[in-house]
Backbone:
């Protein structure tokens, strides 16, 4: 078997550079994708949609004096800041900001989903 010539080495480096640039461009295009919104569902019904964009802030309460979640929106992310449910899993989930992430509060049947207008053909693990 013959060793690699200088031209072979240049070709390998060139192919690797093209592959790395292609992957980088693909990831930047996916990251700069479409408009992001958060859908808030309560007991299977769409309760509210909020934009996830720079400079946007909002805080609102879902529920009454008891059985409530306080949702906080800050720029491109959303979270449940306070809740009176027993296990507090919805608070522990923290901030979410990428589709298809979601927060679920099972006791009060609240689901917060991040949705995007960008195509979602790339697996989340790849991103």
Residues:
């Amino acid at each position: 078997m013959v060793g690699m010539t200088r031209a072979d080495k240049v070709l390998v480096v060139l192919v690797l550079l093209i592959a790395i640039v292609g992957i980088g461009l693909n990831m930047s295009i996916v990251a700069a994708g479409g408009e992001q919104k958060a859908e808030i569902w309560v007991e299977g019904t769409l309760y509210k949609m909020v934009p996830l964009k720079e400079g946007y802030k909002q805080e609102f309460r879902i529920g009454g004096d008891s059985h409530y979640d306080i949702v906080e929106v800050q720029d491109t992310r959303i979270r449940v800041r306070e809740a009176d449910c027993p296990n507090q899993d919805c608070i522990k989930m923290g901030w979410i900001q990428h589709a298809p992430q979601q927060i679920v509060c099972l006791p009060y049947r609240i689901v917060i989903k991040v949705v995007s207008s960008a195509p979602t053909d790339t697996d989340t693990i790849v991103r």
About this structure: The mean pLDDT is 86. The helical segments are 6-31, 89-92.
